Structures are given as structure tokens and as C-alpha cells.
Amino acid sequence: MSPRPHFLVLTFPFQGHIAPALRLARQLLAAAPDALVTFSTTEVAHRRMFPAKPNDGAKDSDEDGRLEFLPFSDGTEAGYVRSADLGSFNAYMASFHAAGARSAAEIVDALAARGRPVSRVVYTLLLPWAADVARDRGIPSALYWIQPVSVFAIYHHYFHSHAGVVADHLHDPSFVVEMPGLAPQPVGDLPSFLTDSTDPSNMFHSVFTTIRDLIETLDKESPRSTVLVNTCRELEVGALAAVGAHHDVLPVGPVLPSGGDAGIFKQDDDAKYMEWLDAKPANSVVYVSFGSLTTVAREHLEELLRGLEESGRPYLCVIRKDNKAALADAETKVDEELKNGIVVEWCDQVRVLSHAAVGCFVTHCGWNSVLESLAAGVPMVCVPRMSDQRTNAQLVVREWRVGVRAQVDDGGVLRAAEVRRCIDEAMGNLEAAAEVRRMAAEWKQVVTKAMGKGGSSDRNLMTFVDGARNAV
């Protein structure tokens, strides 16, 4: 019996990283019935994923033991804890890198000792040390890029040739930067870690240096690095061509939930919002969610809810429990003001976006949310804040024409009138709204085909799996 391919999937402990990584892990298992997968994130995140068994070091999630969860250490007891100290995240990242590399190496060695040797390491974008761990043991590795390939191309060009021109024009967000294979990008729409975090005093400077290290790590791979990307070829033809000369880039997405991972971070959920949606007409509901990290301040929330009410359309708005707690007495006020909509602390986003009643998604443009909306054919109102979100919004509005970009005021607040305008532009009766809806329906068909059997992403995933199997 020939050895079984065994993928070790390592990821950063934020929900927006864990979700696509776990989805990919399950797709690898589906694509290769003989494969094994070990999924690893930090111990704190592991406990969040499996709160019923806080002391378990491992957990098999399927009946035949092909998927195993083994956490690694980030050198802390509590993980990253939000703090007013601007240096706290950078300090956490230093611990994460040092302890994570040691702990992941121990996991690889322990798996080999158990007779379950790793044949391919797959890691997400803030773990450049994972490639070093693999290389030191003669194991091939692949980066799993969980943002659009356009953003990967921007980082590639920045660190190889464009850092100077971007640095020279940081004072002018409207200055347009031209990079090979990409549409011209205003400096203000580049990833925020390139415009806001290059200064060592910035709270997220460690992300900037980590991505720099990641690009350098990829350049060291011989003969070429392998990069899996959570996108499909049809969405980003030009960007793929721009980086394809430097790396073996395989678009394998959109990688969407399947099976148990859909509710891996599920909170108390009585699904009454689904009953509420069932009672609404088709394409009538505005769905609002700003992701698993973004905190909405009181003024922002009041303006948002006023704009939603003034739109006259039913709406479902997600405000996380921790965000509500930070607003203190605002919760009572929120409940008193709701007439046309409901506010929930959590929902199954893919399930909501797939509901026939949903006609628009007001989103921060995190890449997972963008892909889920594209796959559901739902137009978007883009309210980007940081990281890749501004570039993602450009893709949504300019490249694919499936949404509208909301403009915030000089204080960064999305005003009620702008909320109302954008919803009308995405859901109204004018030709512009009809065009957005038409394009959303077209792109839904494109990504569905790419993900389906024999589609471009399906073929790329099989190519990767076959390569891993042949290397065993």
C-alpha cells in the first residue's frame, strides 16, 4: 500500500483566516479520498472552535479519523487581547512567530513519530515561518492566499519594485499607481498595511513586516513557490498573469462552507431570523454585516440604523455581542428604534445570502464576505475599512460591477443619507441598479461553474492534490 498524502494546514487564529483554511482542508479531503489532513491553529483559537472540550489537545472531526485538529502554541495563555496599548498587537505577533515556529516544528516531528508523516504543508498569509519549518524537514509547502490574487500581486510588486513610488505619494490618496497586470490603483485604495503600517510605531507594523517576510520566503523557494488562491481564474485573469511568471499560482476558489465548518464559530442561534426572512418578498431585504473583527462605534451605528430605516426596506443587521457590550446602554436604544428590521448578534451568513428574500449586502468587503456574496449573486454596498478591503471594493465596483461604493465623511462616518443612496443604487428601479443585479447574476453563474466538477478551480485543486500524492 502506497503512503497516503498528508496535508498539514496551518493558519492564523482569527476567524477570517480559520474559516477559509478549514474549508480548504475539507475540500482536500473531498478531492482525495485517500488523503489525511491535520488542521492547526493556536491553542486559544482551538478552544474557541471546540469549547465543549477545552482540554483536548486533538479532536477528530470525522468518523474515519482523516481530519485531525492539533493546536500549536503562540507563546501566550490568552492569545491576542485587544488593548489600548498601540504596541500590544506587535508584541503578540513577535510571540506568535517565535513560539509558533517552534511548536509547529514539534507537531510535524510528532506526527512523523506516530507514523503519520506530513507530505505537504499548507499555510495562510501571516505564517512565513511555516515554509521554513517545512523546508528544514524536506517537506514541500504551499501558501494558501486567502485574499484576492490582485492583492497578492500588489504586495509582490510593492516589495519588488514599487515601494518607493507608493512611499513618495502617501500624502496624496488620489495619486494613481500603475502595476503590471493590474488596473491603475489610487494610493488610497491600496492595502492599508502598505499605506498606514510602514511606520514602526503603527499598531499593525508587524503585519507589514510579516508580509514582507512572506514575499521574501516565496522568493527563496526552489524551483518555484506554490501559491493556492481563494479565487477563480475567471474573476482575476490579469492579476493571475501578473504573478504567474514568478510563482506557480493555482486559483482554487471560491472556497465556500461545506459540512461541519459552516458553523464552526456558531453562537446561540435560534434561526428566528430565517423565519423572518421567509416572510419577506424576494429581493427585498438589506443584509448588513461588517465581519468578525470590525467594531462599530455608537455614532456609526446610529447613522447606519437611521439610514436603513429611512430606506423603507426591511433589513437584517448583525451587531456582534462584543460590539453591543462596548456600546453599553445603546442596545436599548437600538431596539426602540427598529421598525423595518431586526438586529441579531450572529447569523449563518452563507445561509442568509442564499435566501431569496435578500437583495443587497452592506459589507466591509472582507474577502470571505465578498466571495460568499458573489457565489449567491447578491449585489453589494461596499464600506471598506482596512487591510485588503479597499482593494476588494474596487474589484466589486469597477472590475465586476456588482456593487456600489459608499463614501464616508471626513470623520470616517457613513452617514444615513449615504446609506440610503447606496441601497437605492443597488436595489432601486433605475437602470444602474438593474445593471448591478444583472452582473451579480452573471458572476454567480461564472463562479458556480468554476467551483463545479471539471471547472477551472476544481481542476486546479486536483492538480495540487495529484502533485502532493506523486511526491509521497
Automatic annotation (TrEMBL):
Keywords assigned: Glycosyltransferase, Transferase
Residue stretches in coiled coil: none
Record's keyword annotation contains Membrane: no
Any one GO molecular-function label of the UniProt entry: UDP-glycosyltransferase activity
CDD domains per the UniProt record, alphabetical: GT1_Gtf-like
A family per Pfam: UDPGT
EC number(s) reported in the record: 2.4.1.-
Family, per entry: Belongs to the UDP-glycosyltransferase family.
Name by which UniProt lists this protein: Glycosyltransferase
Organism: Zea mays
Primary gene name: LOC100274286
